[in-house]
Design a protein that fits this description.
The complex is a heterodimer.
Chain A lengths: L1 E5 L2 E3 L5 E2 L6 E2 L5 E3 L1 H17 L2 E7 L5 H9 L4 E5 L9 H18 L2 E7 L10 H9 L2 E13 L4 E8 L2 E8 L2 E5 L11 H9 L2 E4 L1 H4 L13 E7 L7 E2 L7 H14 L6
Parallel strand pairs in A: 1-6, 1-8, 6-7, 7-13, 8-12, 9-12
Antiparallel strand pairs in A: 2-5, 3-4, 9-10, 10-11
Helix pairs in contact in A: 2-5, 3-4
Chain B lengths: L8 E5 L1 E2 L2 E2 L1 H17 L3 E7 L4 H8 L4 E6 L8 H15 L3 E5 L2 H14 L3 E5 L1 E4 L5 E7 L4 E7 L5 E5 L16 E4 L11 E8 L14 E5 L9 H11 L2 E4 L1 H5 L20 E5 L5 H4 L7 E6 L6 H4 L2 E4 L2 H18 L1
Helix pairs in contact in B: 3-4, 5-9
The chains are: A alpha/beta, B alpha/beta.
Chain lengths: 270, 337
């Protein structure tokens, strides 16, 4: 049985700079990394493989250089990796993205039963958390978001039991397989690849599925298949912090001024 | 179905165990402005088990109509019964705008609905307006909040958006307001739903002393706190303020604070009324966990630390002196009262 892990290559947000003249992202020199949330998804998939014997297939929709994160996935334990890449897939919003990913999973499911699709909760660039639920809805798999523990998989009964991390509470939920599970970083600590695994990754085959292979209607993918459009991008005007007092020579004075200011502004009351 | 045939602004009223989520009322406030601009009705969707009391509250906060689906199958939130119910209502009554709170529930429900209906959904909006062509302009932060994007859903309806809690103010409540309840039902059999909620556990029972994500005031420490013992200084201030302590990743990795209070991209996200960052430099991964706080106060000896770029107020100095001084001043003021 398969676990499909969806991973995305994203710009490393630590290095994101905006060109103040244009308000646009400066992409040159910004390293690409695996979406940190997806690293947790991949780690969880490989742990389930170790525990239950699943085969792990990692898929990614992205430009050709996304191959790097897929190779990295092999180094971390994925058995097979597939890059979904075609110029027509570019410019996709979350609806057009889930279209492609769901179709790839459907194709995999034709040859081998899919038990779970595991995704990171969201990406660090778009941060919508919409693609996981989009895949679940398209495939009619059960949907479990914000999972911080996969407690048990019953392969015979085709069920999974998870813990979801919600506001101020946890839920223990049982779902029928196949299931789309989105995970939070608290679920695990991703492993570091070992040297033998790195070497295996360098030699691994990254399968490419372009749209000739996937045969999706062009109006349903990429920019054409996106129903949301970005009208405008701008840098928010952030007022400068009001520095209170002289904290170095007079910490008590600065502290008092802070408290008095917060009370005066109605931000805090005694 | 043509765009023009979709009318009205809808707000999804979120509830857990019959308790409404405050964001629902914030959305009725924002929705009222949109409905007024468009010249249409403001309606609420209430789905749950024994939740009819929320209809009256929805009227009080500005809805003129509530679409109500009340049945045991909706007792615990699960994607399947809820998204099917919302899709059914939208397909039948055709709203032009649907707003949902960007909570864990809303962010689970809205994309399922939008994908099923093949319509556009914008996540985590902080601003909503209507343009000359009656389109909803949806503004949200991207790339950790360094940039804002304004997004539109073209051609299709409804235009769906999830909206950040506390991005919009709670409107006035008028308990004398009346409205129309449209009772709807669907055949959804419990047996057909593959998901069961087995147990709900309060975070505090899970061994977490405090749920920091619910606190109104957070006093957070970073590398600058220097030792586990020094965190006591922050705890004293937190106690005096009626808040909680939290920490950055650096403090957790240096063993000064437990993982449970780690705020950041890979830790917890908080949005308190007041966030006091003590000895925290403000790395982007930390900002991801707290930059939506209402008021951010930075205390750091390094004037150029990135934290000051997101702070409302700052003190440049040694937190080991400044923090106890803040606690002391508050105690003095209280003693005078």
């Amino acid at each position: 049985m398969l676990i499909v892990t969806c991973i995305k290559q994203v710009p490393d947000t630590a290095y994101i700079k905006i060109d103040p003249a244009t308000g646009l992202l400066i992409r040159e020199g910004v390293p690409s990394i695996i979406n940190p949330f997806d690293a947790h998804a991949l780690e969880e998939s490989v742990r389930l493989k170790d525990k239950y014997g699943f085969r792990v297939v990692a898929i990614s929709m992205g430009p050709p250089d996304s191959e790097a994160v897929l190779r990295n996935a092999v180094a971390l334990g994925a058995d097979e990796v597939i890059l979904l890449s075609d110029p027509v897939f570019g410019g996709a919003d979350t609806l057009a993205t889930s279209m492609v990913l769901a179709e790839a999973i459907r194709r995999l499911a034709q040859n081998e039963e899919v038990a779970m699709v595991i995704c990171g909760k969201q990406t660090t660039d778009g941060a919508t958390a919409q693609v996981g639920p989009g895949i679940a809805t398209r495939l009619k798999y059960s949907q479990l978001t914000l999972v911080d523990q996969i407690q048990n998989v019953d392969q015979e009964a085709r069920k999974v039991r998870v813990r979801r991390m919600l506001e101020g509470r946890y839920e223990i939920v049982e779902a029928a397989l196949p299931s789309v599970i989105t995970v939070v970083p608290q679920i695990n600590q991703p492993r570091e690849p070992t040297v033998p695994m790195q070497m295996r990754a360098e030699m691994a085959e990254v399968t490419l599925w372009d749209n000739k292979e996937m045969n999706l209607p062009e109006e349903s993918v990429g920019l054409k298949g996106s129903l949301t459009r970005v009208r405008k991008i701008f840098i928010p005007i952030m007022p400068e912090a009001e520095i209170l007092g002289d904290g170095i020579s007079d910490p008590e004075g600065a502290a008092s001024l802070l408290v008095d200011t917060l009370i005066e502004e109605g931000i805090f009351s005694l | 179905m043509a765009e023009e045939e979709y009318k009205d602004v809808w707000v999804f009223v979120e509830q857990t165990d019959g308790e409404p989520a405050a964001v629902s009322w914030e959305l009725l406030g924002a929705g009222a402005d949109l409905a007024k601009t468009l010249g249409v009705e403001l309606c609420a969707i209430v789905i749950g088990d024994k939740v009819e009391h929320l209809c009256q509250e929805s009227f009080a906060y500005g809805a003129s109509k509530v679409y109500l689906m009340d049945a045991p199958v909706f007792h615990y939130y699960r994607t399947e019964p809820y998204y099917k119910a919302v899709c059914y209502l939208i397909e039948k009554y055709k709203p032009e705008v649907v707003l949902v709170g960007a909570t864990s529930l809303g962010r689970d429900l809205a994309p399922a609905v939008a994908t099923e209906l093949k319509t556009g959904l914008t996540e985590g909006c902080t601003g909503l307006t209507i343009d000359e062509s009656r389109s909803l302009l949806q503004t949200r932060p991207v790339y950790g909040g360094n940039i804002m994007a304004t997004i539109v859903t073209e051609r299709v309806r409804p235009q769906m958006a999830t909206v950040r809690p506390r991005a919009m103010p709670i409107p006035e409540k008028d308990t004398s307001r009346q409205g129309e309840i449209v009772r709807e039902s669907m055949v959804i059999s419990e047996d057909d739903i593959g998901v069961k909620v087995l147990e709900v556990i309060d975070s505090r029972k899970q061994g977490e002393a405090v749920d920091i994500t619910a606190a109104d005031i957070v006093v957070s420490g970073g590398r600058g706190v220097q030792s586990k013992e020094n965190f006591r200084i922050l705890q004293e201030l937190a106690d005096e303020l009626g808040g909680v302590i939290a920490s950055s990743r650096a403090a957790v990795e240096a063993d000064m604070a437990p993982m449970e209070i780690w705020i950041g991209q890979s830790g917890k996200t908080v949005r308190p009324k007041i966030y006091i960052a003590c000895g925290i430099s403000g790395a982007i991964q930390h900002l991801a966990g707290m930059r939506d706080s209402d008021v951010i106060i930075a205390i750091n000896y390094d004037r150029h630390a990135p934290i000051f770029e997101v702070a409302n107020y700052g003190i440049e100095g040694d937190l080991l002196q400044v923090v106890p001084a803040i606690t002391k001043h508050i105690r003095e003021l209280r003693a005078q009262k």
